[in-house]
Design brief:
Helix 1 crosses helix 3 and helix 2 crosses helix 3. It is rod-shaped, with a radius of gyration of 25 Å. It is an all-alpha fold and 103 residues long. The chain contains three helices and no strands. 31% of the residues lie in helices and 0% in strands.
Length: 103
C-alpha cells in the first residue's frame, strides 16, 4: 500500500488589510455592525482604543493603530468639536452673595 506524498510546504499567510486606508478598514470590517464610525471611540483614549481593537478586531498592531486614529478623529459629538478623551475644565462658580440685611 502506498501513500501519496503530503505537500509539506508552508502556506504563506497574507495580511488582507495591508495598504488599506482607515476608512476602508472600517468599511470592510466594521460596517456590518456599525453604520457610521462616528461615536465609536466614545471619548476613549487612543491607546486604550488601539489595544482593544488589536485584541478583538484587527489583524495587526498597525491596523489597530490606523483604525484607532481614524475613530478618534471622527468621534465628534453632535454640533461640537472632536473629543480628546479628557474632560472639559469646569467654569468657576460665582461667589455666593450674602442675603441683604434689613434696615
Amino acid at each position: 500500500m502506498t501513500f501519496p506524498l503530503l505537500d509539506t510546504t508552508a502556506a504563506q499567510a497574507q495580511n488582507l488589510d495591508l495598504g488599506k486606508t482607515a476608512p476602508r478598514l472600517f468599511t470592510d470590517t466594521c460596517s456590518a455592525c456599525h453604520r457610521s464610525p462616528r461615536g465609536l471611540a466614545k471619548g476613549r483614549y487612543r491607546l486604550t482604543l488601539m489595544m482593544f481593537l488589536k485584541e478583538h478586531y484587527s489583524t495587526s498592531s498597525n491596523t489597530a493603530s490606523e483604525l484607532a486614529d481614524y475613530l478618534v478623529s471622527v468621534d465628534v459629538p453632535q454640533g461640537g468639536p472632536p473629543r480628546t478623551g479628557a474632560k472639559k475644565p469646569r467654569k468657576p462658580r460665582a461667589p455666593a452673595q450674602a442675603p441683604a440685611k434689613p434696615d
